[in-house]
Amino acid sequence: MSDPIVRRRRGVALEDAILEATWAELAMSGYANFTFEAVAKRAGTSRAVLYRRWPTRARLASAAIILHTRQHPLVVPDLGNVRDELCLLIRRFADRSPPKLLRLIFEMSEDMAAENASFGDQRFQENPLMELIERGVRRGEIDPNRLTPRVLRVPLSLALHEMVVTARQIPDDAITEIVDQVFLPLVVFVDALRHSREAAASGGRGP
């Protein structure tokens, strides 16, 4: 019997395999214990291959975070009202980013700063909120004149802050408070806000 053919991974296939191995190492050990050697072993390649593409730990970890985010987009179906959709979006955002992984932001901060980079850079940005906002505008729930870039950052930023400060997964009642007490009053028409509060008081779905 002839020996099995070993196919060498190249290009995108190789890079994706490395970045998936990188994400697995980060999830298991964090950034503080993150090494090129462990990633190379998990990916079945050599450290030299890694260094040619990502010369520093921060660059390799950053690339893995970006790939993971793109592979797990935040998708929320049309639920008929922006309140329920916002609650579901924040829940899925939080579930994708448990507190253990959020520590990466702090663990990587010094190395990122040394490379004049940060998680505020455009390459890390995604905007899953916009589709929900556009639906709300079309339904007449949201006043487009009240939307600003800073206001649009409020829901996910508050959820992220809650998880970072408490080091725990955000509970559903905190998500409801962010949506009902903070974000919606900033962006919806008055009549829509009244309707949303009445729906919540009568047992709206929430997250």
Notes on the protein architecture:
This protein has 207 residues and is mainly alpha-helical. It folds into two domains: 11-69, Homeodomain-like (Arc Repressor Mutant, subunit A, Orthogonal Bundle), CATH 1.10.10; 74-201, Tetracycline Repressor, domain 2. Helices cover 66% and strands 0% of the residues. It has helices spanning 11-29, 36-43, 47-53, 57-71, 82-96, 99-107, 109-114, 129-139, 149-166, 172-187, 190-201.
Count of structural domains: 2
First-residue to last-residue Cα separation: 58 Å
What is the level-2 CATH architecture name of the largest domain?
Orthogonal Bundle
| Pattern of helices and strands | HHHHHHHHHHH
Q: What would you report as the Rg, rounded to the nearest angstrom?
A: 21 Å
Structural class: mainly alpha
Total of DSSP H or I helical runs spanning 4+ residues: 11
Instruction: Please count the beta strands (DSSP E, at least 2 residues each).
Output: 0
Helix content: 55-70%
CATH topology of the largest domain: Tetracycline Repressor, domain 2
Strand content: under 5%
Taking the sheet with the most strands, its summary is: none
Low-confidence stretches: 1-6
What characteristic shape results from the CA principal axes? elongated
CATH class of the largest domain: Mainly Alpha
